[in-house]
Amino acid sequence: MLCYLHSFSSYLKGIASNERRILLIGKTGVGKSSTGNTILGNTIFHAETSGESVTRRIKYGKAERFGRRFFVVDTPGLFDTNIHNEQVMQEISKYFSISFSGLHAIVLVVQIGRFTEEENKTVQFFLERFGENVFDFLVVAFTHKRKLEDDGKSIDDYVRTLGAKSSLTKLLERIHYRYVAFGLNGNEIERKSEVLDFLITVEGMMDNNGGNLYTNKMYREANRIIP
Fold this sequence. Notes:
- Residues 17-223 form the AIG1-type G domain.
- One of its GO terms (molecular function) is GTP binding.
- Belongs to the TRAFAC class TrmE-Era-EngA-EngB-Septin-like GTPase superfamily. AIG1/Toc34/Toc159-like paraseptin GTPase family. IAN subfamily.
- This protein has 227 residues and is α/β, with parallel strands linked by helices.
- The chain has a single domain, classed as Rossmann fold.
- It is 38% helix and 18% strand.
- It has helices at 32-40, 85-98, 117-130, 146-150, 155-161, 167-174, 188-208, 216-224; strands spanning 2-3, 19-26, 59-65, 68-74, 105-111, 138-143, 179-182.
- A seven-stranded mixed sheet has the order 1-3-4-2-5-6-7.
- The radius of gyration is 16 Å and the shape is globular.
């Protein structure tokens, strides 16, 4: 089910024990919406390969899978040719303005390939806007892992090739290498396996956090101190 902000304002005020609230963020064209569709097990968000963000407004999808109620927030892409980053953050702020419960996981979506200066800027911008608290709730999701599999490599092999001075490497170190990978074009069995790996990662992180969430207060504090 796909809905916009106004449809979920009352729903966002409560949270069930089996619910998993997830926010997706990343640069335009990395497969963010497709990642959301994989997690939800259905084509909820519109996605296509493009340098322009398909998602212009913050959108929500929900589904029940593996005994969990997934609530996924898809956001406009950063560094888009037609949407300024500040507009993207304004959309994300709308979520925190009505969600009193917070998020179990914030997922930074990154496409497998050469990590460019723009990707570096995406990571830096993201960390600046979400603050120090985000490290406890962050998972990096790599997309298009089929590129690696075609070369006989794994996602772990790819991570080892990242430069030691890369902002992504430093980020992965900070979150204790909490990452997953999605193919986005695999069969149903492969997709389910990917989502289960993702769920295990998220719930392990939840255990470490003692049930705490990334809250609207944390987000507001991070943005309050931006010069």
